[in-house]
Amino acid sequence: MQISSDSVEDYISKIPEERQKAFRKLFDTVNDNLPEGFEETTSYGMIGWAVPLKTYPAGYHCTANTPLPFINLASQKNFIALYHMGLYSGPGLLEWFVAEYPKHSKKKLNMGKSCVRFKKPEDIPFDLIAELSRRITPEEWIGIYELQYIK
Fold first, then answer.
1. pLDDT value at position 1?
2. Which tens digits make up the pLDDT trace of 125-141?
3. Which stretches does DSSP call E strand in the chain?
4. R_g of the chain, CA atoms, integer Å
């Protein structure tokens, strides 16, 4: 379920009402804790943060002339999703997150390669997401990205 929007407020207004408060808190948690240099975006039917083209002119290799994506949030049919490319690309960060998750939530971690899914808004571990958001700077993300994806 992709939501077409051009702003955070527009996106949030289009998700189910029972998710809006938690989604807003998740957005604020990420936004308030990301290192300086990431830029808020709306892309791929989600809200996100990316390394802007002014910082990384090469942009995203999959879509020409677009900022390098880093974190996205989405309201899917059955869950709220947090997509974090650092989890997908960095085994050390992934190992840390998997080990820390049970300390912050009684629920089993529901995760794909870069996607952490929260079926119930009340189960979102906001403190852990805040810490995760602080862990990689734009410069570090560019380095990881180039090492993993640019050959």
1. 59
2. 999 999 999 999 999 99
3. 39-43, 46-51, 68-75, 80-84, 115-118
4. 15
